[in-house]
């Protein structure tokens, strides 16, 4: 089983899973992510991650498109296939 310890959400390949460890974004941006279920400890599935395009992720029963800039501000760990 392949695994990556800690990285940014923008670097997680499509088809992999990750757990949110923290954020490096302004509080205003953070307040927009929390209602979508993107909080510390949330488990995510990266549906699609293509260079130059938004990331498509799933959190619970919600599918979300995130800009690469926002995804780069999300620290993740326990990244695995």
Instruction: State the CATH class.
Output: Mainly Beta
Please mark out the parts with pLDDT under 50 across 5 or more consecutive residues, or reply none. none
Beta strand count: 6
Q: So, the CATH homologous superfamily?
A: Ferrous iron transport protein A (FeoA)
Q: Which band does the percent of strand residues land in?
A: 35-45%
Order of helices and strands: EEHEEEHE
- Count of separate DSSP helical elements: 2
- Structural class, from helix and strand content? mainly beta
Q: Report helical residue fraction.
A: 10-25%
User: What about the largest sheet?
Assistant: 6 strands, antiparallel
CATH architecture descriptor = Roll
What overall geometry do the principal axes of the alpha carbons give?
Answer: globular
What is the CATH topology classification name? SH3 type barrels
- Count of domain modules: 1
Q: Main sheet: which strands, in order across?
A: 1-6-2-3-4-5
How would you characterize this protein structure?
- The protein is mostly beta strands.
- 15% of the residues lie in helices and 44% in strands.
- It has a six-stranded antiparallel β-sheet with strand order 1-6-2-3-4-5.
- The model has no long low-confidence stretch (mean pLDDT 93).
């Amino acid at each position: 089983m392949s695994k990556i310890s800690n990285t940014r959400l923008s670097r997680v390949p499509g088809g992999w899973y990750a757990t949110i460890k923290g954020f490096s974004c302004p509080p205003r941006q953070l307040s927009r992510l929390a209602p979508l279920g993107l909080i510390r400890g949330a488990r995510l599935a990266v549906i699609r991650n293509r260079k130059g395009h938004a990331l498509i992720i799933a959190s619970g029963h919600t599918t979300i498109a995130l800009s690469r800039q926002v995804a780069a501000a999300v620290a993740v760990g326990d990244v695995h296939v």
